[in-house]
Amino acid sequence: MLAAAVQPAVAAEVRDRATEVLAQRLFPMLDAIGRSPETVARLRADRSLATTLAARAKRTAACADAAPCVAEAALWDAQELAALGQAVERDAASLLRERRLIPDDGLASGLAREIHGLNAIVRVYALGMPARYPSIDGPSAAFGSTEAQTRLAAAVRLRNTPRAGSLQALDPSVELGLALLDVNDRTDASGFEPIDGGDNAAAMARARSINWSRYRYTAIVLTGIGPEVPDMPLSPGGKYHVRLAANRFAEGDAPFLIVSGGRAHPHGTPHNEAIEMRRALIERYGVPAEAIVIEPYARHTTTNLRNATRRLIALGAPLDREALIVCNPDQSRMIENPAFAERNRRELGYEPGVIGRRLSPTELTFRPDPRSARIDPLDPLDP
Length: 383
Hints:
CATH class of the largest domain: Alpha Beta
CATH superfamily of the largest domain: HUPs
CATH topology of the largest domain: Rossmann fold
Distance between the termini: 61 Å
Number of domains: 2
Oligomer: single chain
Structural class: alpha/beta
Strand order of the largest sheet: 3-2-1-4-6-5
Shape: globular
Radius of gyration: 23 Å
Helix content: 40-55%
Largest sheet: 6 strands, mixed
Number of helices: 16
Low-confidence stretches: none
């Protein structure tokens, strides 16, 4: 008796859903290009870009199996970025426009931010450059250690392992950046997508019927203040913040609480500040879930305000109305200080809003700026 013929599987690259979400968050323009084989083919056929890509490939090939050399070769210099930008303008602008991925300051600026963000990932996670805030950011293992070398070697191997929808056919550098974050367990930037679902679903549904004119403020923004003790879910300062916010919310001046803070303190913590603050507001103070919006990505006060503005935009809140920032007096004074505005300009490239009147030692008004909707992957953990 003849055995039934075995039908071969259709050959195809496999999807990596975790990496897909991370790529969409950090590199939305480059990710969209990678998902379009036709666009990749046009870019590969672009004579000007082809010369640049060939030089980059030759530089990488010369490294053989030396992982640090491969990482160094993955960096984009100014001339290479210019060539890529010109080709993308010619061959991918229509795709990016159709998908509404061109930022308010133009395609070239947006693409440059993504490439600079990629370079930052490679430098910090492969080449030993200190992170901007090394006490909470950076690789999972000390640079130069055996463990760090093992993680780097794995990332270099991953960058060439096929993944559906990647940009590998054009240049493997983006895949290397994503792999470096993955092998260091630093995929924080994609952990709660889609952000308007999950814990935010009830608030998003309620926002559709909100009469914003009934409220003095669009939301109370509660900034994170993470613990420095491993395995501590909510810091003592966080407990103070939560009670401040619960009391303020009970006055009825705002329809929503936006709790902002990521998985930042201490380095490698499993706890997320926004999630822990939300839990305390519900369990300890009886705040309804439909009134709480989590912003679980911010790792610094600058991005607390930027990302809170993004949540306000998603809620449909009128941005010409004020929100209210509630936090401890020390942090509140820091936010009010002109040095904080300068820090925003240095780290984000703009101010996420205007700090207004002081109502109390723990309360400041805040008028958000719609430029906060821009994607800024200069900090790969805090886009």
